[in-house]
Design a protein that fits this description.
Chain lengths: ~575, ~375
Amino acid sequence: MAPAELSLKLKAGSGNRVKDFLNANLVNILAALLFFLLALFLLYPIIAVLVKSIRGPSGFTLEYYRTFFAKNYYYRSLFNTLLLGAINTVVCLVIGFCLAYMTTRGPYPLRKPLKVISLVPLIAPPYLFALSLIILFGRNGLVTRMFDLHWQLYGFAGVVISQTLAFIPLAYMMLENTLMSLNPNLEESAYDMGASEATILRTITIPLMAPGLLKAALLIFVMTIAEFGNAAILAGRTPFLAPDTYTMITGESDFNMGSVLSVVLIAPCIIIFFVHNYLLEGKKFTTIGGKPVASEPRKITPVIKVPLIIVTTAATGAILICFAVVLAASFYKILGVTDKFILANYLDFTSNQAIANSIRVSFIAAAIGAVIGVLLAYVIVRGKFFGRSFIEMASLSGFALPGTVLGIGYLLAFSAEPLKLTGGIMILALNCVFRFLAVGVEAGISKLHQINIEIEEASADLGASFLTTFYRIVLPIMFPAFIAGFIYTFMTAIVSLSAVVFLVSPGFQLAAVKIFDAAVYGEIGIASATTIKLILIVMLCLAVLNYVTKKTRLGSGLKQPVA
Amino acid sequence: MSGEAVARPMLILKDVHKFYGANEVLKGISLDVKEGELVTFVGPSGCGKTTLLRLIGGFTEISAGDIILDGKRINDLPPNLRDTRICFQNYALVPHMTVAENIGYGLRINGWPKGKIRARVNDLLEMVELQAFGDRMIDRLSGGQQQRVAFARAISLEPKVLLLDEPLSNLDANLRLIMREEIRKLQRRLNITTVFVTHDQFEAMAISDRLVVMRDGLIEQVGSPIEIYERPANRFIASFVGYVNFIDGRISLIDEATRNTFVETEYGRFEIALEQADIAAGDEVLIVVRPEAVTLSLDVGIKRPNVVCGTLKSYMYAGSLAKCTVEIGTMKMIIDQYNPSEAHHFKQAEQVAVEIPHRVHLLKKKKQA
């Protein structure tokens, strides 16, 4: 092309100011719309909870907070919750560290199986562990009867054990990630200089892991204190904040006190969020990057090896046993009490109906969630407007918020006209959408970061409008992220319990709530069979995702879901 | 120069093999490294050079064969019990320790008393010219300074063999040249037996007493840089160490007294001073012509021995040298013309004369089965 012609063309492209302006504004319009949705379905319910906690029949009052701090019962509830969080965090970190150490530094043949078992709880609803503990150690439990024991599973110990097992995958994933990102040459160098395994751990590995350990500790703490299912099933008479909130609402219909408990539950989350940001500020240890070398197994000294083996064997063994007993229990009315092998639990009408309802709700949630997730990811990564970081934080925060809070929030926010949604299927779906929005957004963001913005700029440069570019370039590239967001949201929604337990109506039962009720009322067979069905659905989802990933070469960088 | 006294072998590799599952990454490596010698493993990525280094250091388990260090078999010793110290490509410095703590790490681990550690660390700091940096944290150092710290730490315990895994690859081009001289100077001064790994053939030639050229888990050739460059054992090595033009030919006559040899090619007959003993009349050979060995002239049309004419396809003047492409029949020959004083004439030339030197390396072609 002659230079004259070229310059003519360029002039025509850049001269279209109106079109450029509209193109820029389309992103803003999209952002405004998403902002509105986040405000309505995420912020508004939380504000409703806050307001409810300080508004009595005659306006503003702090009476409910005074009641909370005056009553010994609530005080114990708070104390138990924090203690549970602390114990869980420490135990999970120790177990997670041992597992991660073995799968990144241990002998090759052990690495893969240990990793798989550590992650297996992810395919099950977390309250599977409460259920399996009842089957083993409950009043009619297998172990209880076998040794004629007179112990009490229901209470603090039961909750701690079930929660620990449920949070092993999270601890493992975070610590494995940290260990994998350490340069193995640092440890090898120390080894080369004559340091023993214990010395390497003390002087190199653990100091290097410190930021990762801290991050994992804070996250596990926040998630365990907010976790509802295990505590609600196994707490017995021991008070914990999350299940107490549930009793307050469903048992006593005291929305004011329920809101107060919720706010108290959010407080540590918010404090920890800021502590986390403050502590990790500029704390990144940088090392010169070379080619990453996988850690080769070292000859680990017995002082370190023996505890490692004991902890990893115990943890993986416990996980496997829990799965096995739930599977076994699904074929008996009550395993260990009735001996007749039956399939009736799988054919139970209410259970199957609950499963069908769960699939419907999760499907709707996944479809909406994936669309909003992809759009939000786009706006977060590519947008340049005021409040962008707020949108990012808001869309990722639903995950860290205690489910019970969003459950009550939705009850409070959407029970009156013109926003009356309670009693319907949409309130359940929308709740899942906004609680698990982070899943789709993260998938979208990680995909978008792999796309060079120049592809879009090239498209715009060739004269395409924003909409054309979005439709022709962005959407096809984002499609795998959309699929991933859809499936992850579906999987997470279908097992989730803590929020929907407030929102189900008597005529519309969900599988998670059905399991919860059955476990509480001692219908172990039904609870187990329903759990197994959920596991199978989740496994099917993973298989589909795996297939899609292979087909589309969806890059790495997707976070595993945390149920 | 090395080899003035008959140095004893410090490190011996005997038929070393390494399997990863069914994948054989080292296929029988045998080598002697003399005391005080700097030997470089060089080869394209995936040739097994780093694996071999890690095997000597004890980080990777040997599958078969022997590693002998100073007369003792060390196959089964872990790295900490071998008298070898490694310096990793990424330096592997501990970010939460100071420079002095990093250098003194090995001494501390080995129970040296505090005072002695301090003295030794100071010596080492001086040796790598970082006296003023002892209290700095690692991330406050430049890449070159980090390199020195890693080197100082590796020699802190006075190992019998020092292993350097691509130590210069994270530095920019100028710093690489400086650091490679410094490493070489210190290595000579301390007379420390060193195994150096790099994928950069020029770095390898510049720093080493001997090169070990590897490919696909095997040693292709061992020799001094001059031997490797001027008398490569095969086509792969010839093209690995710099660009090379190959001319197919057949030996028609060897004058047994002068070793003067005629090689018949598509482009005519070349007269070459034969150095190899294993080449006989009738052999198919490749003439190895380095771009800088060729003389380019504008004297077209005068018939001289070893001169062929061709079309100058490109002439890229770059100051100290001009890169030329000359088409001779079906062959494109790359020629480096150093100190190109008549550049303006060549720039306009179409036909040029290309003179192949009399002393040039020949590669005997393997007979096709």
